[in-house]
Amino acid sequence: MKIPFAESFRIKMVEPIRHSTYEERERWIKEAKYNLFALRSDQVFIDLLTDSGTGAMSDRQWAAMMLGDESYAGSSSYFNLKKAIKDIVGFDYFLPTHQGRAAENVLFSVLVKEGDVVPGNSHFDTTKGHIEFRKATAMDCTVDEANETQNEYPFKGNIDLNKLEAVLKKYPKEKISFICITVTCNTSGGQPVSMENIRDVYALAKKYGILVLFDSARFAENAYFIKKREKGYENKTIKEIVREMYQYADLMTMSAKKDAIVNIGGFIAFRSEEIYRQATTFNIMFEGYITYGGMSGRDMNAVAIGLDEGTEFDYLETRIRQVEYLGAKLDEYGISYQRPAGGHAIFVDALKVLPKVPREEFPAQTLGVELYLESGIRSTEIGAILADRDPVTRENRYPKLELLRLAIPRRTYTNNHIDVIAASLKNVYDRRDTITRGYKITYEAPIMRHFTVELEKL
Ligand SMILES: Cc1ncc(COP(=O)(O)O)c(C=O)c1O
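^ thats the input. predicted complex w/ pyridoxal-5'-phosphate below
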């Protein structure tokens, strides 16, 4: 008999989670103004809001935390992290920050000016927020295949070179802050960028004299997909693939809460000493002194170990196979999602699952609320609410896809939980004909509204 696959870890510590009744959930979600972010965590049974900072650290990481050096300047933890960054991605300069968006804030204070453009692949919302806040424009150059959820194209995070070159030709190089490659591309469904595409984008960038930044939150998952899907990489280790990827980057911002498997942390890494020096001033102003930048010594130690563990094949295989397992269950039930399964999440195609809810009434949000009501599962909308209003016209932006993201925390839930998620979604899908109305917005912030939006049921 073929031996089945099993996780490459065993469990040493557990945390209880609670069931609730339908009536309780109905009350709680109404009190939360139908915004899943506004629920208390004890009102949630399985929390798929995000895979960011929600993973389980390893015994090695917890041990490293006990050895954290909390000196204000020059701590050993800073040097541990500096060494890990040098070993894994090869950059000489780095600044710690408290998380990914802080890295964006510091770096973009140096590089992004009013009137600039930043081409890239579906910029993440905080990345776009930091660009638009500086009155610059994020230009999405993702391949068109990313908009077809049933297309099995293996690298839907790729940048379309023609779209990119059109931007590089149209704007003078002083107006282009950098090219941003998000690996993997969260917004298009946790979809990877191929090594070939990374290499081609870098070559084009150098032809036009532009910097390349990797938004690196899930860089290790990207390397796993390169190993699995790209010819010539099947026998390379994840660490070898990562080193090759970063030969084609000038800068990186990192949310360590994802692929470094910690609960808080981030950093910026640089090839150029000059840009590092300029960013240092902003880091001291916004984050902290250069050798801690908003992180404690123990957290930097945990990130250093996490970068090593997160780039091990066995860990990545366990993680990504769990996401694929959920995808396979949804296949069984005929529920559409962004194919192939992403690295950190399944992105359910809400327009296909709830075809009767009008786009102006936010079908993905509606699906998220229904899934919560069904069994206390919290997910997140990646649709028109997240897309925000156009900064100039203030009209609602309707992206091509309305997705519901089921983000899977790292090393946290078992496949029994995955079975519950799939069955709950099936129950909602089975009653889709009865779900015809969605929600209207009653309060929204001027930027990044999805975090605090308030809704009313129609
Ligand atoms: C691709 C990407 N970039 C940047 C960020 C921002 O990181 P953080 O949440 O640590 O601020 C995220 C967070 O989800 C992300 O997915």
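The mean pLDDT is 97.
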